[in-house]
Design goal:
The protein has 69 residues and is mainly beta. It has one domain. The chain is built from 1 helix and 5 strands. It has one helix spanning 47-53; strands spanning 9-12, 22-27, 31-36, 42-46, 54-59.
Length: 69
């Protein structure tokens, strides 16, 4: 469950001030960038903090082709 893909939709433990709890992963690496699905705000978290604050995986992002990397 620790694999994070671009396009994953995750639920975070605490709601965003706009009221949304669903986020889409837009960047992966040492830091994870997520976009709120309610208001569109971008937030960047280090990987450890993201994994600790993540509550559930709602939908998987598309598989990445190894040829394109």
């Amino acid at each position: 469950m620790d694999e994070i893909r671009l396009g994953d939709i995750v639920a975070m433990r605490k709601p965003h001030p706009c009221g949304g709890t669903e986020w889409t992963v837009t960047r992966t690496g040492a830091d994870i960038k997520i976009r709120c699905n309610t208001c569109g705000r971008l937030v960047m978290l280090d990987r450890e903090t993201f994994l600790r604050r993540r509550k559930a995986l709602i939908a998987r992002g598309p598989d990445q082709d190894l040829d394109s990397l």
